[in-house]
Design brief:
single chain, alpha+beta, 4-stranded mixed sheet, two-stranded antiparallel ribbon, 6 strands
Amino acid sequence: MNLNAPRILVLNAGYEPLGLTTIRRGVILVQNETADAIIESQHFLRTPSRRVPVPSVIRLRRMIRRPLGRLALNRRNVLRRDGFTCQYCGKRSSHLTVDHVLPRSRGGRDAWENLVAACHACNTRKGDRTPEEAGMPLLRKPSAPGYLAWITFELREVPEEWVPFLPVTASRVYAD
């Protein structure tokens, strides 16, 4: 998936965010009258006979019952949650490792609350100890990303026109 490609925010009939979709799928939903364009973007699709405006936000006409999704627990999402910042020394880098706060050898499990981004030097220095034992306090206590974190994780930046439709915490980047 191209992260720089424009995306369309999809809202449920009650205006709560459901997800993101491609331009093609969003335009088809509007053309088939399955969804209404709430906010138009500056983009157009050109056909031989006309220009079709590309929406930035669409709202489905029928309510979709869908349980809230959970963000996949993987290395990339842990690094994104922590803003590509070592949680021990504060160094920002794209070359980080994932550290278990409570080491696996001591029963630490793979969970949002036990994984943090760490630079190679801090991860090696901490070793098979807890942060307290190593004298390396965490910058921020790890926790599962909040509701709709997938929007800030999938996009580099949330478009300004989407902000009124998103909860306050989802409309800003998680790692502040």
